[in-house]
Design brief:
single chain; 7-stranded mixed beta sheet; alpha+beta; 18% strand
């Protein structure tokens, strides 16, 4: 007889508003495999809640397809009718849901990525828009090389490398750190989001490591003599620097989605799902930069977009730019038939020093 398995449906819902990439979160309060909704009701706030991405059970009696089940859950929990949706990955590690270790079923989650224009959420799950770099702060290089990497992650990774039991493992660790975090002269690769989170988790820097392994984080500094800082204070401070944790393995799912989205910028016109029907080229560039977490060279970007046939002018202008009115463009849908991979790419990434 096979052990019980529950199929869950999860979605990372992404919007970009005022150059800020956001995800829609809900409040988890109960075990999702225990037959409960797993979400905070607006009328009954709980003091101990965690941010989660919208998720729920697949009901084979009601849902004709997985995607239809997902859309039903999202509408109930957040009040949003999703447009663009694509399947992301299936997450099924043992004990990814803590109830499994207490005799509950194995929870397999089929995750999706959805792109929307930000709207006011409603529904039953206490949904809120959150800036996604609150959860993955080391991924934002728009203002230069990430400070959280320089001050906190790189020193901890160096100690991890130097603690290797032999030279072969030391070399392997150093290579992984350099390639994934742009250390030791290696370039920063925006798409390696999941690899970076997995390494942070493995080295015990993520607060989820503390929760899942029931061990202490690797690097909170000891309090100075004579201070009143407690161990809990140091842990909270360390967590705030290395990103807000999420329920279950949802920060891993978020990292997977961000890496997928950054990769798709190169070969699919997904960015236009996040823009109004008419937009300036400056707006388009800022949305791409918000997703990629890096700044782009203005002229290189515009040259690629225009010569690639991705946009067409509308003969209308936006006078709200504070200077010379900027022409409004729209996505040119004919490019889907003309080119096999019509993405905006990341032309002329400014590699921070």
């Amino acid at each position: 007889m096979y052990p019980p398995v529950v199929i869950g449906l999860s979605t990372v819902i992404v919007a970009v508003t005022d150059e800020t990439p956001r995800i829609l979160t809900v409040q988890l309060i109960d075990d999702p495999a225990g037959g409960k909704t797993g979400f905070q009701k607006k009328q009954a706030p709980a003091p101990d809640t965690s941010d989660a991405i919208p998720f729920g059970h697949f009901d084979p009696a009601t849902d004709r397809t997985l995607e239809l089940g997902l859309r039903r859950w999202v509408l109930e929990q957040t009040g949003l009718n999703l447009g663009y949706v694509e399947q992301l990955y299936t997450f099924g590690d043992r004990n990814r849901d803590p109830s499994e270790g207490e005799g509950g079923p194995r929870v397999i989650s089929v995750a999706y990525l959805a792109l929307v224009r930000e709207g006011k959420p409603s529904g039953t799950a206490g949904a809120h828009w959150r800036e996604w770099y609150r959860f993955l702060p080391w991924e934002d290089w728009r203002s230069g090389r990430s400070e959280v990497i320089e001050k906190h992650i790189a020193p901890a990774l160096t100690r991890w490398v130097e603690s290797a039991p032999d030279f072969r493992i030391l070399q392997d660790r150093r290579e992984r750190c350099d390639i994934n975090f742009g250390l030791g002269g290696a370039p920063w690769v925006p798409e390696r989001v999941l690899e970076r989170y997995e390494l942070i988790y493995e080295v015990n820097l993520a607060i989820e490591s503390l929760r899942d392994r029931k061990s202490k984080p690797a690097a909170p500094e000891e309090a100075s003599p004579g201070t009143q800082e407690t161990k809990r204070d140091r842990t909270v401070s360390w967590t705030s620097r290395l990103g807000r944790p999420m329920a279950l393995d949802h920060r891993r799912i978020l990292a997977t989605a961000l890496g997928r989205l950054r990769g798709k910028l190169k070969y699919r016109p997904v960015v236009f799902e996040l823009l109004p029907s008419a937009f300036t080229l400056f707006q388009l560039q800022r949305v791409v930069e918000a997703l990629a977490g890096v700044r782009l060279h203005k002229q290189n970007f515009r040259r690629l977009v225009e010569k690639g046939g991705l946009v067409e002018g509308t003969a209308r202008y936006d006078s709200r730019t504070g200077g010379r009115p900027a022409e409004l463009f729209r996505f040119r849908r004919d490019v889907l038939r003309e080119r096999p991979a019509p993405g905006v790419g990341l032309p002329g990434i400014r590699q921070p020093g």
